[in-house]
């Protein structure tokens, strides 16, 4: 008896110098947590380095994840570079912009994470705030190098994100110093932080095109990866009963919950009140 085919999920990756075993060389790499979340949700992860012509692969993929990474070249949205804009990799911008355009054109289920949200917004004609601490007057979204910030986000009722997570408010792991300024064409805001920062968007009219500014891969799956892989598997379900689809029955049990180092807050307890916040500036995304 042949194994049930899993949805093939392409995941973009970094190209950076890395040290492993006896080597210190440039490498195409990705944190293992991305691979784990997709696998646990029932998908078959495939890494997509920014080389060659990855846009040509959309016909063999069932879904696409655009992972985190360095900043986008601001020239792509008509802005000069801020002094704090960094880790720009033009070859990665080139590969991912063409890949995302091809994936959306084909109607491929899409999940953007951190940089992936920014790529989606710029591909759709939007712009970015290049350095949030300068705009907000604080660094909570990336408090220190290599340290996640825990910032509550409020989910827009009725959004795709609300449907995927079943949450109204939770506190995920953030690590970003940039954010959406002008919203790209066809995008709708799915979640915001209390400071007004856009934390999730979705492409209206698409069966599943959702992007979050935080890092869901570092926590137990709140339902986001499960919903994404479920959408990616819709083309494989002709003869497979629901209970036998590994990307649905397996994902709903959220096996990552048992080995995650940190679990996100999905809802505040009933009757709880938000803590008083000091006076701070708020962002307001503009739309095209």
Protein described:
The chain has 288 residues and is an alpha/beta fold. Helices cover 21% and strands 23% of the residues. The protein has a nine-stranded mixed sheet with strand order 4-1-5-6-16-15-14-9-10, with helices on both faces. About 11% of the residues have low confidence.
In which order are the strands of the major sheet placed? Answer: 4-1-5-6-16-15-14-9-10
Whole-Å distance between the termini? 53 Å
Q: Work out the number of β strands.
A: 17
- In N-to-C order, the SSE pattern is EEEHEEHEHEHEEHEEEEEEEHHE
| Helix-strand category | alpha/beta
Q: Level of helix content?
A: 10-25%
Roughly what fraction of the amino acids lie in strands? 15-25%
Overall shape: it is globular
Mean of pLDDT:
86
pLDDT under 50 segments (min length 5)? 249-279
Assembly annotation:
single chain
Most strands sheet: 9 strands, mixed
C-alpha-based Rg, rounded: 18 Å
Helical stretch tally: 7
Write the SSE topology.
Elements: E1 8-12, E2 14-20, E3 23-29, H1 32-40, E4 44-48, E5 63-66, H2 90-106, E6 110-113, H3 115-123, E7 128-129, H4 132-136, E8 149-150, E9 153-155, H5 160-165, E10 169-170, E11 173-174, E12 179-180, E13 182-183, E14 187-193, E15 198-203, E16 209-212, H6 224-232, H7 246-250, E17 286-287
Parallel strand pairs: 1-4, 1-5, 5-6, 6-16, 13-17
Antiparallel strand pairs: 2-3, 7-12, 8-11, 9-10, 9-14, 14-15, 15-16
């Amino acid at each position: 008896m042949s194994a049930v085919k899993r949805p093939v999920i392409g995941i973009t990756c970094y190209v950076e110098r890395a040290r492993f075993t006896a080597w210190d060389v440039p490498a195409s790499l990705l944190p293992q947590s991305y691979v784990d979340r997709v696998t646990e949700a029932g998908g078959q992860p495939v890494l997509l380095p920014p080389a060659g012509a990855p846009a040509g692969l959309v016909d063999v993929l069932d879904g696409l994840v655009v992972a985190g990474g360095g900043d986008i070249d601001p020239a792509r949205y008509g802005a000069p570079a801020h002094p704090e804009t960094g880790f720009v990799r033009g070859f990665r911008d080139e590969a991912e912009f063409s890949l995302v355009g091809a994936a959306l054109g084909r109607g491929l289920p899409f999940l953007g994470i951190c940089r992936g949200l920014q790529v989606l917004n710029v591909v759709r004609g939007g712009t970015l705030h290049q350095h949030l601490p300068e705009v907000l007057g604080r660094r909570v979204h990336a408090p220190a190098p290599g340290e996640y910030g825990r910032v509550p986000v409020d989910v827009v009722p009725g959004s795709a994100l609300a449907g995927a997570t079943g949450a109204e408010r939770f506190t995920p792991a953030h690590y970003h110093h940039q954010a959406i300024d002008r919203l790209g064409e066809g995008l709708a805001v799915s979640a915001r932080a209390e400071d007004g920062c856009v934390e999730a968007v979705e492409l209206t009219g698409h069966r599943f095109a959702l992007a979050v500014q935080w890092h869901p891969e570092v926590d137990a799956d709140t339902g986001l990866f499960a919903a994404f892989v479920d959408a990616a598997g819709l083309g494989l379900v002709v003869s497979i009963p629901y209970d036998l689809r590994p990307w649905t029955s397996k994902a709903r049990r959220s096996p990552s919950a048992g080995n995650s180092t940190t679990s996100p807050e999905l809802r505040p307890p009933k009757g709880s009140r938000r803590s008083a916040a000091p006076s701070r500036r708020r962002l307001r995304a503009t739309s095209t």
